[in-house]
Amino acid sequence: MFWKRIKNSKEFESGNEVLQDLKGYSLKDLVSGKVFTRTSFTSQGPYFLFVVLLAFIYINNHYALEKLLKRQVALNKEVQELQYEAITTSSELMQMSRQSEVIRRVEAAGLDLEVLKTPPRIIKAD
Q1: What pLDDT, on the 0 to 100 scale, is given for residue 80?
Q2: Which long-range contacts (CB under 8 A, 24 or more apart) does 41-50 make?
Q3: What is the distance between the alpha carbons of residues 126 and 124, in angstroms, rounded to a whole number?
Q4: Helix (H) or strand (E) holding 102
Q5: What does DSSP assign to residue 112?
Q6: % of the chain surpassing 70 pLDDT
Q7: Spatial CB neighbours of 29, under 8 Å, sequence gap ≥ 6
Q8: Are 25 and 35 contacting, i.e. CB atoms less than 8 angstroms apart?
Q9: pLDDT digits (tens, 9 = 90+) for 78-115
Q10: Which residues contact 35 (CB under 8 A, 6 or more apart)?
């Protein structure tokens, strides 16, 4: 219904109004706000609002993307730190499991354990 009113208003425009609308806009018209009252501007109102809506969506999308990128950088940094921690822990465990380190810890704990002089034997039960 709104679109029909705009079409009908175009039919009743005089030639002078159309000629005035085709003339260029001056800075004075822009500052005073007369630009917004001209029929050429008001007839393009829905398109202008659509472009403004698209601009808001674009800006929102840009901020959301920046937020995701910041989160990705933080997660990548956390993964890198966890990898370093895993490597360090693995190295420490490997150092602790060496035979010489086990013997040293047993002696430091004061346990009466000795290293086997003969290899272990498998006992078979019949």
Answers
A1: 97
A2: 43/6, 43/10
A3: 6
A4: helix 99-109
A5: -
A6: 80
A7: 35
A8: yes
A9: 999 999 999 999 999 999 989 889 889 998 998 888 88
A10: 25, 29, 41
25 vs 48: CA distance, rounded Å: 17
Q: Supply the DSSP string of 40-72, one letter for each residue.
A: HHHHTHHHHHHHHHHHHHHHHHHHHHHHHHHHH
Residue 18 tokens read as 């159309």
- Rounded distance, CA 67 to CA 61, Å? 10
Tokens of 34: 């007369």
Q: Closest Cα to residue 38, out of 12, 59, 18? A: 18
| Global confidence as pTM | 0.51
Closest CA relative to residue 44, chosen from 8, 3, 13, 1 = 3
Is the Cβ–Cβ distance between 29 and 35 less than 8 Å? yes
Supply the mean pLDDT for the chain.
83
Q: Which residue has the higher pLDDT, 32 or 89?
A: 89
Closest CA to 38 of 72, 4, 9, 69: 9
Under 8 Å CB-to-CB from 96, ≥6 apart: which residues?
A: 102, 105
